[in-house]
Amino acid sequence: MDIDRKLIESVAVVARLRLTDREVEKFLPQLKDVLEAFSSVQEVDTAGIEPSFHPLPLKDVLRDDTPAGCLGQEDALSLTPHKKDGYFKGPKAV
Amino acid sequence: MSILDEVRSGKEDIVEYAEECMQKAKGIDREYRYFTAIAEESAIGQAREIKKNFQKYRGKRLLGVMVSAKDAICVKGVESCAGSRILKGYRPLFDATVIERVKREGGIVIGKTSQDEFGFGSFSVNVGLGFPIPLNPFDRGRSCGGSSGGAAGLARKADFPHIALGESTGGSIAAPSSFCGVFGLTPTYGKVSRYGLIDYGNSLDKIGSIGKSVEEVALLQGTIEGHDPKDSTSLSHPHEGYKELKRNVKGMRIGVIKEAFSDAVEKDVQKGVRSGIARLEEEGAVVEEVSLEFPIRYSLATYYLLAMSESSTNLARYCGMRYGQAGELKGNFNEYFSEVRSKHFGEEAKRRIILGTFARMSGFRDAYYIKAAKVRTLIIRHYRKAFGKYDALASPSTPLLPPKFTDIEKLTPLQHYMIDVPVVGPNLAGLPHLNVPVGMEKGLPVGMLLIGDHLQERKLLEMGMVFDGE
Question: Of all residues in chain A, what percent are helix, strand and coil, respectively (each to 5)?
Answer without folding.
Answer: 40, 5, 55
